[in-house]
């Protein structure tokens, strides 16, 4: 894929990924087939900041986990009231990283499987 397109993609979407993942993403995209570009443009990533805000407001009900696609963990948090609050507090520190990991999974899905 064209390096200019890859750099444009990274500049517009770098907040959705961990900083240490960016060089690997760039290398992967440069080596990817040009036909993947349309799929990349149509991707919509979850914003880690929004996930944190949702976690602060409704984390004890598992809404944050449902938002990023962790349905099983969302149900677990819902049934236990956020692990009696403990799980909710832990997720305040973990939810942004989990959101970025889900975004990376979505990117890999488009690059490698479609």
Keywords:
114 residues; mainly alpha; 8 helices; 0% strand; elongated; transmembrane helix; membrane; transmembrane; TM2D1-3-like
What does this structure look like?
- The protein is mainly alpha-helical and 114 residues long.
- It has one domain (3-113).
- The protein has helices spanning 3-13, 22-31, 37-41, 48-58, 63-68, 71-79, 81-84, 86-113.
- Helix 1 (3-13) runs antiparallel to helix 2 and helix 4 runs antiparallel to helix 8 (86-113).
- The longest helix has 28 residues, at 86-113.
- It is elongated, with a radius of gyration of 16 Å.
- The chain starts with a helix and ends with a helix.
- The model has no long low-confidence stretch (mean pLDDT 93).
Low-confidence stretches: none
| Count of DSSP-assigned helices | 8
So what's the overall shape? elongated
Give the helices and strands as they follow along the chain: HHHHHHHH
Total tally of structural domains:
1
Gap from first CA to last CA: 16 Å
**How many DSSP E strands?**
0
Please identify the structural class as seen in this structure. Answer: mainly alpha
What share of the residues lie within helices?
over 70%
Radius of gyration: 16 Å
**Most strands sheet:** none
The amount of beta strand, in percent, is: under 5%
Strand-helix topology:
Blueprint: H1 3-13, H2 22-31, H3 37-41, H4 48-58, H5 63-68, H6 71-79, H7 81-84, H8 86-113
Helix pairs in contact: 1-2, 4-8
Q: What is the gist of this entry?
A:
The protein has 114 residues and is mainly α. The protein has helices at residues 3-13, 22-31, 37-41, 48-58, 63-68, 71-79, 81-84, 86-113. Helix 1 (3-13) runs antiparallel to helix 2 and helix 4 (48-58) runs antiparallel to helix 8.
């Amino acid at each position: 894929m064209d390096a200019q397109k890859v750099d444009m993609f990274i500049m517009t979407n770098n907040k959705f990924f961990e900083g240490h993942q960016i060089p690997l993403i760039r290398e992967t995209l440069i080596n990817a087939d040009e036909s993947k570009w349309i799929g990349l443009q149509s991707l919509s990533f979850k914003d880690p900041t929004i996930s944190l805000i949702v976690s602060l407001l409704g984390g004890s009900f598992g809404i944050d986990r449902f938002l990023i696609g962790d349905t099983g963990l969302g149900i677990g948090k819902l049934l236990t009231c956020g692990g009696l609050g403990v799980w909710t507090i832990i997720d305040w520190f973990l939810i942004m990283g989990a959101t970025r990991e889900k975004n990376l999974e979505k990117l890999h899905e488009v690059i490698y499987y479609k």
